Amino acid sequence: DSLGQLPAEMVADGQVLACRTRLLEEPVVVEVGESIECPSPESHDEEATCLVRRELLPKDWDFDPLAVRWRLRVPAPRREDGLSDLDRVTCAVQRDWGKVTLVYSLSVMRQVASALRAEEGLVTVTLIREPNQLRVIRIEPGDRTTGHYAIAVDVGTTTVAAQLISLTHGKVLGTCSDYNAQISCGQDVISRINYSNRGARLRELQSRILLTINRLIQEVCRNHEVDPGEICNAVISGNTVMTHLLLGLDPEYIRLDPYVPTVKEVGYLAAAEVGIEIYPDSWVYFSPSVGSYVGGDITAGLLSTDLATASEEISLFIDIGTNGEVVVGNCDFLMSCACSAGPAFEGGGVVCGMRAALGAIEKVTVDRETGLAQYSTIGGGKPKGICGSGMIDLLANLRLTGWIDPSGKLDRERFNPLIEVHGRRATYQIAPAAETGTGKPIFISETDIENILRAKAAIYSAVALMLRRVGLDFSDLASVYIGGGFGRFLDLENAILIGLLPDLPREKFHYIGNSSLMGSYMVVVSQDYRQRQLNLARRMTYLELNTDSSYMDEYTGALFLPHTDLGLFPSVKEKMLRCNAGTLNCGHFQGRIHENRGG
């Protein structure tokens, strides 16, 4: 790999490759060792930037993981005390942890006799800290406190990401992501539910997602020379349907009135029981869901926003993915809803679409006169496709330069060899075959544009409807948090220009990336965050859009660039007027959200 790779010991020491590290436009302070990412040649990881940023955590945050490896000196057995080996371990643990109840797995019972006698009673126990008790899942001879790891997993409908965490200091070692292997069975949650109803296909869907997760765990562990058997805790966050499919639970009733899931809060489950290939007795914790289409990925994502604090200001959280989830509220109330946005922003349903991986076109400008696209790719190499952020840039620039109309139709009146008409449809060429990494041209069709418009309309209309239901307007919002891993950078101006985001003062927006994965990490390393997440889930009101007839009215109006009501987008209206008057350098806007802070 021309990008190279640092040895594991250098990564562990906090060093990064300068050629793989992007500096933000605003001054930043890099805390060495807090979060490191260094892809290997075979890694699916799409970038070297951090997915967990410590500045999003409250200042009073304490490292307090759910799983602990604890060194003990257990006294030797004595004939007169009548204590069993487990009794002696219990006394030793309670000496350090107080009179807490201990629960032992069967595997520990099988390990304890030899472990206690191997190094004269010096052992390391792995403890899972449950409410009101400690669960002992492993006992090993000697001091084994350094090899202590956890895994955080974001199970998306389109993309799955796994993050390896050292529990010695709470440091992120690496992240890998890939497409969800269930995609061939349906691109959204409804099609997957329908697929699961045929024969043994529920088991097939379960096997496919387990295959994806376990492959990513193996990969990120291999990249950092970690044995998956040393992972003693996993936190998994996904939408309600994905959680059901992972656990092999029938999701049928999620889509049927009254839209009831089998479970919203999953209790203690061992890794072997779930099918996650780490230490078999490891605790697998699933982030709690709120309703049929607002799941653990959202309750995890909220942890890095003001919605998880005591703030009285009204905040909005939008997770942009295959399912668009929205939460609005403050310390007094929380309301949530979800919409089916489709996989367009993650590369699905678009012929040349792809995830935000190496080779993806992530930024585009369009020349007003020639219609020629200028672009940049993730990694700087030849383009292989276009990702979500690139699609947003492309549509915004095509609209500003007049090459598409408000309905997304390409201009057939002006001659342009980049625009080809095929019957009733037309395509626009972004990059010719000679410039691409695939040897094929990269283009966008009017059908692709329709899919993107449907995705952005679903999200915007869900936000508008929910605000109206609680008697609020966009102007009432103090902060807007944008989650979703479809691109490393979201161009704020272009997202507003196409009508994906509301036209608000720009300082109110905060892009927080893959918030589901970030929240999963936070739960791994903090008991307090686990409790906060439970509290958020339990006090959130869920709005079911399937039963609200006015949703389609909002949706129809949002199926245009930016909207049928231009009064909702005054800054876009002004730009279009200035662009048409020739006073604006159309197609070359700069307004990118560069890892803005929030929470």
Which secondary structure elements does this structure contain, and how are they paired or packed?
Elements: H1 8-12, E1 67-73, H2 85-97, E2 101-104, H3 106-118, E3 122-130, E4 133-141, E5 149-155, E6 159-166, E7 171-179, H4 189-196, H5 201-223, E8 231-238, H6 240-247, E9 269-270, H7 271-274, E10 283-286, H8 296-301, E11 315-319, E12 323-329, E13 334-340, E14 360-366, E15 373-377, E16 385-386, H9 388-400, E17 419-422, E18 425-431, E19 442-445, H10 446-469, E20 479-483, E21 490-491, H11 492-497, E22 509-513, H12 515-525, H13 527-539, E23 541-542, H14 550-557, H15 570-580, E24 592-593
Parallel strand pairs: 2-4, 5-8, 8-10, 11-20, 13-23, 14-16, 20-22
Antiparallel strand pairs: 1-3, 3-4, 5-6, 6-7, 9-10, 11-12, 12-13, 14-15, 17-18, 18-19, 21-24
Helix pairs in contact: 10-14, 12-13
Question: What does this protein structure show overall?
Answer:
- The protein has 599 residues and is an alpha/beta fold.
- 28% of the residues lie in helices and 22% in strands.
- The protein contains 15 helices and 24 strands.
- The chain has helices spanning 8-12, 85-97, 106-118, 189-196, 201-223, 240-247, 271-274, 296-301, 388-400, 446-469, 492-497, 515-525, 527-539, 550-557, 570-580, and strands spanning 67-73, 101-104, 122-130, 133-141, 149-155, 159-166, 171-179, 231-238, 269-270, 283-286, 315-319, 323-329, 334-340, 360-366, 373-377, 385-386, 419-422, 425-431, 442-445, 479-483, 490-491, 509-513, 541-542, 592-593.
- The strands form 6 sheets. The chain has a 6-stranded mixed sheet with strand order 7-6-5-8-10-9, with helices on both faces.
- Helix 10 packs across helix 14 (550-557) and helix 12 (515-525) packs across helix 13 (527-539).
- The protein is elongated, with a radius of gyration of 25 Å.
- Residues 1-14, 18-53 and 589-599 have low confidence and may be disordered.
